[in-house]
Amino acid sequence: MARAVSDDKPTPQLESHAEAARKGSGVDSVVVFNTHGIRLTHPETPLIGKRIVGPAGLVRDELSGKTITETFRASQGPSVVSAVPVTRADGAFIGGVSVGVKVESVNSAVDHRLPLLLGSGAGALALATGGTALMSGRVRRQTRGLGTVEMRRMYEHHDAVLHSVREGVLVLAEDGRLLLVNDEARELLRLTPDAEGRHIGELGLEPHLTELLASGRRVTDEVHPCGDRLLVVNIRSTDRAGDPAGSVVTLRDTTALRVLSSRAEEARERLKLLSDAGVRISSSLELTGTAEQLVDVAVPRFADIVTVELLEPVLRGEEPEPPYEPLAPHRTAVGGVPPEAPVFRVGERVVYAPATPQSRAVKAGTAVLQDDPTGTAEWPAGYGAEARHLLDRGVHSLITVPLRFRGVTLGLATFWRTRRGEPFDEADLAIAGELAVRTAVCVDNARRYTHEHAMVAALQRTLLPGGLPDQDTVEVASRYLPAQGAVGGSWFDVIPLPGARVALVAGKVPGQGVHAAATMGRLRTAVQNFSALDVSPDELISHLDELVTRLDLEHDADAHGGRITGAGCLYAIHDSVSGRCTMARAGDPGIVLTRPDGTVDIPAMPASPPLGQGGEPFEAIGLSLPAASRLVLYTSGLLQGPGQTAGTGLELLRRTLEAEPDLGPDETCRSLFDTVLPARPGDDVALLVARTRLLDPRNVAEWDVPFDPAAVAPIRATCAGTLRAWGLEDAVYTAELVISELITNALRYGTPPVRIRLLRGRDLICEVSDGSSTSPHLRRAATTDEGGRGLFLVAQFARRWGTRYTSYGKVIWAETALDGR
Known about the structure:
The chain is of the alpha+beta class. The chain has 20 helices and 29 strands. It is elongated and about 155 Å long.
């Protein structure tokens, strides 16, 4: 059968055998089916391949491999079906065989055999019936057909059962007399030996129990006290089908069950405590948060007061090294302390004497249970009076357990109970140890996280500007707020440019962590290097975009590298001579402009994709800004956070700037952080506020230079006169040398038009422009060369010099110090 049912074509193998069995046994059907209920054989061939039918419970039992015999009403009338499972050698259920017989078929067979049976036994039956009726009619009426032996056996059996069951049984008459009581009931109710036959009210039971038993009402599982026991009572009437009126009472002692139930509930609560502790303590990667979670879980479910103390190296993210003496941990979290008992103060360093339970626990590396912590000598030094005050509040036992992980002690937790609860026992010692183990794992994770976070934060601090450069072009202030629990990639920068100009930068790298911090440093360095080329903002952003794309291609080849694509940067150049501000942007950072009259404007900058995505050129816009205008550069973390969208934050930023038009840069930063910054920013925040300045026109002088070497001397003299008029007598000699060399270089190697401009600020700036894009190069002239020393002299006498390119040529500039700087 098993081989045939498991075969791909079982029906041809099984059909003939099934039919032979059906015909030989005279049943109506023999059906073989598989585990899906599909018929493999059937007397009616069209039904082969169809599902077996019948009552849902019957079919379910057949398909679950049960052996069954059931009667049910089918479409052909009442039928009886039997089924057995078919299994493989390993016992696996692979199908079954169902045999059906219709009741009418059985009746037909009986009809054929009944006359013969009746005929052959009629005489004997008549004789036996008559004799039996005469001799035992009365006995049958009294014993209901049982003889003396059967009656004796039945009585002995019932009596043995009645007195051996662990349940009390009482039989009461209708008038309340006790007819029968078993041993268990006699013991539970403390009945006397002569209790049977007496009225229930004469048995000395408690009044409420006497009233209940005498009531005769139906009772189901009611709990009633009886002395020091709790009894579950059931009462049922015996007045059924002519039986004598009365009631049967059953009693069960649940006192021990209640004790066990109480212990089981206590064990369940402890398991739930450990489960909750495992979830909550591991929910934080911050050391203080981890300690506070242990306190919140343990108070008041396990202890009335809990303190968690961590060793000092752990708070720094380091791993403590033994010996731990003297034991002086840092109290990190406390819970359950009454306000009038300030013995436990968070944030302090506690020194424990060697005899204290805390020191002994750390030294032994195991939990210590102390039932009577009354000796003030065992308390931390300097706490005698406060310890006595807390003991007076009812502290009667404590458990202190070290927080150890991988053999290293990280701190300790102490659990205290007051007079409100039972003293700690050995079971509580195990619970405290388990709580400490789970806490130690989480504390070590938090310690590692603190260590790594400190390293990343230190890296980020070295990559962010340590201070803003000293310059006259704008008055600036900045703020940086790291992301909560992580290090982000936002940055800002202020880069002085030649020609009394300054570059203002705000940038954002996606993601958090060491990769974001390192990438931020790379991009900030790249922006500073590109700024040295003195290119326009849109060209600088294009160079930065190409760099990001190239770096990402390198990371694609490194499976462990992080991508930079998606970074953003805003770059603006302010010229304090012309008052012109040119800016370009890629991606996230934003800018808001406030004019001196209080008008707030958001410059309509062309939309550009983040860095690295490419495909579109970057465009710059130019604005004319009067003096005292404020430029606010920010990253998205300033505006967005839980409960605050970017649109809401931007509108709040606008209203704040409009309401306070006269604030300086530093006050503006403080105001924006107080009013605009979300309570929990979604990312780190970089904010840069710059108030523009314009160079006084009286400190600007410029002339056209004829394209003739003979014009060098007159122009030099004119510039010297202007410097004397500015009161810069000490700077004339150096300036004349620089001016002479720059003009001579432009006339010899450049093309017209040639112009010279002098700018007086904290330094003297000399700019010579011409129409050529040829770049000058500093070189060391040989002793036999007649020229080539001009730029070398300029580099020696000037603080800085360089070249920047314009749409019409180039500008060679040099800065010389004033006032002896």
